[in-house]
Amino acid sequence: MNWDIALSPFALVIDVKSITLFIFGGLASLEKESKTPADAFWVAIAGPIVSLLLFGIFVGIGFGTAASGPLAAIISVLASVNLSLALFNLIPGLPLDGGNILKAIIWKITGNPYKGVAFASRVGQVFGWVAIASGLLPLLLFGSFGNFWNLLVGFFLLRNAGNAAQFARVQEQLTGLTAADVVTPDSPIVSDNITLREFALERILSGKNWHRFLVTDDNEQLVGAISIDDMRFINTALWSETKVKEVMRPIEQSSTIQSDQPLLEVVQLLEGHALSSLPVIRDNGVLVGILEKASIINRLIHVIQSGKITGQKPLKIKTMKLLNFHYQIIRIIN
For burial by CB atoms within 10 Å, which of 44, 228, 261, 320 has the most? Predict the structure, then answer.
């Protein structure tokens, strides 16, 4: 994908978070994935359409103005560049727009977006190997660098198509996980009715290395949080008569996540807001526990290596080098 997608009307539907430029164009990083095959199709085809429109405009200007000399050369170059970009991006293999169009078509046929990604990634890898071969053979047989650009194109397609395939497989394996699946066992939870001294004896001196505790009422609903630092402002002589609810800090509903929220959404939320943990609650407000980055990472590693979610073969450990999708280990392949 290239700059056209960011400038097209479809960018109003799905925000473009960033664009990584390559010598052949660019890859747009979208704020969120398309929800339907139709959305994915229109987002993908927007770039080539804009490039083809620009090609037509420059051709029309060239013929309409009967330009000559340097101006005609510039118009011709601009027309050729846009036509080349459109045709290149229409190659039906990821990560190009043509690959995303193919992904949307397979998604529509199978009803599974990950199968679309996997198929389009394989096609992209095929084109990548063909491009590499077409650039490497003349070099080895005749010492010619005439097709050197094919080598670059091939490595570009091969690398990014492979990453997309790994990404789809990991995502598919994580689809069944929710926030409740990675709640930290024995989460730091304390009742709002106990005194600070009871709190200190039961929780702080229990050997657990927690610095912040979630506070619940008699109905086990989340009402706030208290940290060790909050207690330093209270004279220790008053700890026996001061209750946790008098010292705790309130927690806004927006700072919590639902127990049935998909894990991938939770990961994106944590990274997007630079958070290390979030309280997990049920629909009725009852606290389930705390969700930490470390717990997510450990669970993801376990699922990826065992393939328990979909029954697929376990991913090799080298896949972990690509899990930079979120945090340093999890960005799950870009």
Answer: 44
